[in-house]
């Protein structure tokens, strides 16, 4: 039984961790922290959990208590994991960070995008980027795992087969991504109000979004070279889901893209390459730790279109975090994550 | 291992049965029928099920095949179970009917509301109304179970404590109920289009709705007398969920309603009486087989307001059907139904 | 040409005033205030207004400037109009207050519900409750108009024909009301987030809501006696719209309710009594200054059900405010309000 | 006063024509046809129109009656205008076709995409493509106008400034477009159900969509050369709105794109070039005949991103049709179209 701590459990990735871990046969949540809600029972804040955590209350973060856990998840804004990771690792506790703190390997670049100096640059060399489809072996040995962002998960899983095979023109990649509103978190902001985000669609961050350097870092690794990426995120009037529509120039029209994708992910439990001609819907992964992908070559031209969908809170955050935990602790990778998506 | 057949699996209650049974450790779906989709793999129609039923295809309904199952669920329009139930029961197969065919005990009343003669009145004496919170013992012995409708489940569970205790004026009960659009099924109809049902609310069937006699039948049983009920259903722009707002006159202001409700459901695994002052949200039961209830007495007057929420496809249909199956086959009642609701 | 000032124009009732007044041939917005956004062009905040108010900027509220207007609308939280009304009236400016400040005629009751002392009790005797269907003559002479709340508008227009005719049992009225999320305003609050309010329904304020005394005050006036009202508001996943489902006991079954309603509103430009058997949808009034009503007597019982729908931002706020302005200034009551609702 | 006929008025473009023409001071709807609903009053089908067309009923299409109109709008599926246009033109009636019948100038290409032979190829030479921003002079002289499709309007208005200026690499244009569900029409189809299209996003028609040749035809005209376009439409869970995200390679980084766009549309009443750095929202044009555009050059690279939003039922259909009518009859182009969009 893995003893689990969660730092910052009041947001959507926190409650989603609780939902997934409630049905995990080999993990037990021992502590969950929140400064603002300390003392409150988790099911008073999240009534969907009533009956599942009858005694669990939010507590003030405390290194001694957290350090007694086998693993601590950070479901926090950026900066928090920087401050606590070293102490927890020293206590022998594994750290799985759902925030952006250890995703970028270059501390300076991190500082540029997040507007503050990196708080734990000494840990970067050992931080493992927790995309199991790329880094499974490293995850097994890790002490500190950076769970990928939601857009980066959808975009990388869609581009990787083309890049690893050296097929795409890496100088002109495009990721036109659409996200549900829960991606903006549970903080009170006017832009995320029902009456603002409902019945409307818009792009945002076209000038530059924090997930851009993270996606580029992953694509560089896959391509073995620099990449040029245009990333346009959009806010979509739905709660959960990311739909990445990816464009890459693949001049060689003789390659069997369907076979390439199927082979790349043949042994992956959580990547589903759909039949040729498919259009995956985000609802087909709602609540499930799955990325569904379809690859198209419209009008048999040289521009390939990859459609990649995930649930931003599951494969894009908390589910992927649990998947990392399973790998890290030598458990069956599917434990607690085997349920089907909810449709409709 | 319970061998399961499903008749009419292409609708929302069908896919929800498949989703729930996919994670049920003691049940296996052996056959699922659909005349219109015979030959199609279920996960071609419902991609959320990819990986869960790799070999399961819709087949033409056939009594021999269905009769080889331990239990057959009917997820069909009314009339279908009438035609097949007798043969299946004769084959020793249990029948759990999610349609309205055996919900009303009076064949004539059934005919009046459904516009056609009852097709199997001989079976009515043994049909058990599958509301476990009322009929658990009878369910254990049943061959034929009528799973309650969605509105009737929410309304009965909310009213029953008051009626069984003889507290309410039974002549003037009101059920103002709000349903998500999935309650209207997966049939193509203009009224259920996104552009028609979205961003709008309306009442419907104020003159008379088919669930009215079913609710009244259940309330009569609880009250031990005739009841006068006004039932106003509303279509709400959400996919899943029923919110029943129930009004009853309870002249005796000395009774502790909170305690009454808590005691009535103390041992029920799937009814959650929330703390005093609560306002249950339908999302707190999304995807879960739970009914959450709160009871209020506004301004300390004699009108009591009960708020009762369910997921119409789970506790209001397929989840309750699985709960009945568990009881019927002597399994732990929570098997396959223990997961938390999905929020947000 | 009526010279218009708006205090507190950044919220939803403010932008809706601007939308409606942009097409009003006899009104011109001269000044709009907002402390927090002073200096910002209104169409920078509300791009739907681009091209309509090319030079209009938010300014700091200033009595001299506002006092130079013919009329000032308050689209503010409660308390603000209390502070400014006296000075504006002294300057000869009419005041149309969309907030709750002058809706209740009893200052003490106001203080109880709003948690602070009434700030201008001296003005209460002359404040006119701006429901034109009841108070048109008084509105014509008014200096200070309190625009009714959204729930109160829908509920009163639905109940009034029964009460004025002395038909209903006034001791047991029920208003089960469903509101879109814009009713909660544009303030950043967790409960109004898309991911919180979407795909879910809940009741709120069952214990007591600020609109309860306002509705009761209006119903008392119509009935000529005390009334007992149970009011249960619900949050519905749509942006605009209120659906009031009203229940009243009308023992006399011989009365022609349809005729009663049609006659009561025969000369009202903005109340539409729909044909017998109708179920008005909130979308049928989206963006329009209309209240549509249908009256039912289910199962020919003694409980009458009235369905009343409005757009909470139009007939429930800004449209009704403009209607009041038209009456007050002797204009055609329909000016600027004659457009059809937007469907779908 | 322009005497208007509408053929096929029961769909969304039909009701939107009625909404817009109700507030048009120089047009009067004399006849509206529908075979299936003949005899029904239009406001029985569309209660938002109650009070606006008290006497207007759907009638069986009849050339004599339609031929007595000054102009006939076709709001029909493809093929219908083919059959009737010749007779109406012979009667001296102008034809404004909202369907696809006369959008493609090549009858053979039309036949390929629409799966049937073109029904009136003789009329193609005189059919004018009704995009006023390109064809205003031709529209003034036209007898037969083909109103552009919704996607083509948004895409062309966004690309045209770049193409007319010869700045873009025309061989690799991308239009990633997101549409609300009303674009699929009011026909009963499973894919457009609230429970299917809600809370989800998907691409569709990646292999080839009927609007592709129409967009290409318009872009060729603007560029004066062949174009290579990849067009990926997506279904978005909102009722109205199209968001086109357009990608074009513009190697010359010295050009002032903002100025280019502003100059191109300086005198256009219905194209709004937003300030640099803007992200237009579809709700900012809801109900209004406006296309709002922003142009970006992310990371100062050679890939330009244009964001273009319209209401698919207004500037993408019925509003643009009225705009064409105004031009055709020498009226002020803004008549009936000057109202602001509705937000929220």
Automatic annotation (TrEMBL), chains A, B, C, D:
The keyword Oxidoreductase applies. It is found in: Cytoplasm. Pfam families: Semialdhyde_dh, Semialdhyde_dhC_1. Its EC number is 1.2.1.38. Catalyzes the NADPH-dependent reduction of N-acetyl-5-glutamyl phosphate to yield N-acetyl-L-glutamate 5-semialdehyde. NCBIfam families: argC. Belongs to the NAGSA dehydrogenase family. Type 1 subfamily. This is N-acetyl-gamma-glutamyl-phosphate reductase. It comes from Pseudomonas aestuarii. The gene is argC.
């Amino acid at each position: 039984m893995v003893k689990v701590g969660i730092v910052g459990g009041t947001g959507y990735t926190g409650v989603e961790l609780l939902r997934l871990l409630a049905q995990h046969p080999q993990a037990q949540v021992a502590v969950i922290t929140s400064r603002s809600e300390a003392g409150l029972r988790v099911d008073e804040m999240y009534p969907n959990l009533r009956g599942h955590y009858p005694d669990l209350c939010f507590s003030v973060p405390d290194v001694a208590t957290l350090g007694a856990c086998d693993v601590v998840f950070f479901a926090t804004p950026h900066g928090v994991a920087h401050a606590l990771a070293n102490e927890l690792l020293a206590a022998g506790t594994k750290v799985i960070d759902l925030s952006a703190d250890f995703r970028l390997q270059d501390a300076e670049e991190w500082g540029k995008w997040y507007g503050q100096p990196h708080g734990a640059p000494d840990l970067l060399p050992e931080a493992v980027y927790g995309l199991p489809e790329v880094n499974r072996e490293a995850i097994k040995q890790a002490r500190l795992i950076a769970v990928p962002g939601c857009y980066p998960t959808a975009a990388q899983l869609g581009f990787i087969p083309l890049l690893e095979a050296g097929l795409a023109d890496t100088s002109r990649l495009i990721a036109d991504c659409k996200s549900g509103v829960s991606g903006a978190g549970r903080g009170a902001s006017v832009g995320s109000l029902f009456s603002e985000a409902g019945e409307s669609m818009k792009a945002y961050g076209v000038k530059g979004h924090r997930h851009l350097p993270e996606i580029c870092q992953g694509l560089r690794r896959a391509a073995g070279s620099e990449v040029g990426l245009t990333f346009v995120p959009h806010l979509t009037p739905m709660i959960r889901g990311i739909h990445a529509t990816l464009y890459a120039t693949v001049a060689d029209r003789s390659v069997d893209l369907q076979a390439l994708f199927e082979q790349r992910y043949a042994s992956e439990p959580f990547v589903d390459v759909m039949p040729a001609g498919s259009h995956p819907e985000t609802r087909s992964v709602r609540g499930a730790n799955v990325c569904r992908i379809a690859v198209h070559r419209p009008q048999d031209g040289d521009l390939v279109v990859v459609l990649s969908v995930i649930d931003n809170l599951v494969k894009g955050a908390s589910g992927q975090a649990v998947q990392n935990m399973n790998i890290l602790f030598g458990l069956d990778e599917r434990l607690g994550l085997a349920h089907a998506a909810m449709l409709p």
